[in-house]
Design brief:
Largest sheet: 7 strands, mixed
Number of helices: 12
Amino acid sequence: MQVVEIGAYGGPEVLRLAERERPVASTGEVLIRVSASGVNRPDVLQRTGNYPVPPGASDIPGLEVAGVIESGDVAAMAEAGLKVGDRVCALVAGGGYAQWCVAPVGQCLPVPAGLDDVAAASLPETFFTVWSNVFDRGRLQPGETLLVQGGTSGIGVTVIQMAKAMGAVVIATAGSDEKCAACKALGADHAINYRTQDFVAAVADITGGRGVDVILDMVAGSYVAREIDCLAEDGRLVIIAVQGGVKAEFNAGLVLRRRLTITGSTLRPRPVAFKAAIARSLRERVWPLLAAGTIKPVIHQVFEPAQAADAHALMESNRHIGKLMLRWS
């Protein structure tokens, strides 16, 4: 089969088309003939040598796919309500940039009604991540206020729509007026241009000094101290990436006085059972919203596999709004 592999750690140019043996599904797994693969920030980190592949996972990048089940564990499929020939999207620990990909049955979801495979493949990585971190760890409730950093990223466009659908007030930050307008078009109640505004002051103004209940942060570093200033009493800060650095200094006294929670997680190394539980929640709570069009995939650009380097370069430029995708013929 044809794959996109990482020839050596480095820039986007190290990505190359190659031939690999087709994988074989084992117990609890299915083999998917892939129509489309999502391109995500962790793929870039893997390419640069900053995100090690979990033990047992494929070294081929790619964490989400969509396509047709060709074979697999029949009993496990039956238990999950799936069968050979079904169109599915799946979260995987690696191997997504390929014409065939093995996925745990528990991490597969049916393609939502009305979506093509490119749209479906844009869902798993961000939707699993958002549900796990914003709703499970962050415990966002209807009527609460969420601040999302990077509102036009793949994660951002997902969390804006999902949080609004669940009844939250959403404040998003973005790096241009155009991107702020895109956040509002997706449903954000407020959008802050972090290049021209101090987001701490803006949050205080928007909330009347109360602060927000939950923050989803992909920056960390120096942002942590400023985000603690943005939190309301009993607020929760959830860190899912460290683009601004792994070290942070903050006022621990505020954490004590306001009873704040600082948490975070990475999804890729978690066990199948953990991810399968997220999949069940998504199928029950979010998939009907996708089928109804209440939440919509946001695709910025679709690339051919031979253009994977261009997709990575665009992601690193931060010029995109929404998801970047690979489409397999």
